[in-house]
Design brief:
mainly beta; about 200 residues; globular; 3-stranded antiparallel sheet
Length: about 200
């Protein structure tokens, strides 16, 4: 996320990438000449889904057009059976990290299957005084019936520099690298991590 996040596309604001032995390197980008869509000092909800045939990105509940930066979207983002090795806030290359997020991250979640557009709106408004879609969620009661997060990191520890606890109940605590205790900041809900 950010101004020219990875160099895969022109005017990219958000880049989604995957490297696998079967599919090689693939990246999809949301491109815009307007930087203020996410870089405006406000909290924004970002969701990415893959429904078995198409990858979608939603910013603040609105689906955005994706551009192929490398490879294709023809199933390249499917078949993920584990969240081990997932990376948030930087892009792993060999044994180092590049293209760091400049901004704050709060409440990242990974679901076992694609959320619908309506479920994304409900998730986005969880903990709000008003709700979209007719259901009022709470920040501490996440999930949609049998569809609960495979990983959910509230970032509410507000201390330490090595672990973000998984609140999904699946034991997928996140190892933080290059973080300092001063990187904790007020979040959308509770605390968040500031990536600088």
């Amino acid at each position: 996320v950010g101004n020219g996040a990875s160099g895969s596309c022109t005017n990219e604001l958000v880049t989604i990438s995957r490297v696998s032995a079967a599919a090689g390197f693939n990246s999809l980008c949301y491109t815009t000449a307007t930087r203020t869509q996410l870089i405006d000092g406000n909290w924004h909800h970002l969701a990415v889904t893959f429904d078995g045939s198409k990858t979608r990105i939603y910013i603040d509940g609105i689906e955005r057009l994706l551009t192929v930066g490398a490879g294709s979207d023809a199933g390249a983002f499917g078949g993920i059976t584990t969240i081990n090795g997932a990376s948030l806030g930087s892009w792993p290359v060999n044994s180092s990290r590049v293209y760091y997020l400049t901004g704050s991250l709060d409440e990242p979640k990974i679901y076992k299957s694609a959320l619908t557009a309506s479920e994304i709106l409900i998730d986005m408004n969880a903990g709000s005084a008003a709700a979209m879609g007719g259901v009022l969620g709470t920040q501490d009661n996440e999930g949609f019936g049998s569809l609960s997060p495979a990983g959910w990191w509230k970032m509410d520890e507000n201390t330490g520099n090595s672990t973000a606890v998984d609140s999904s109940g699946n034991g997928k605590d996140m190892t933080m690298t290059s973080m300092e205790t001063t990187d904790w900041t007020p979040g959308k809900h509770g605390s968040a991590l500031d990536f600088d």
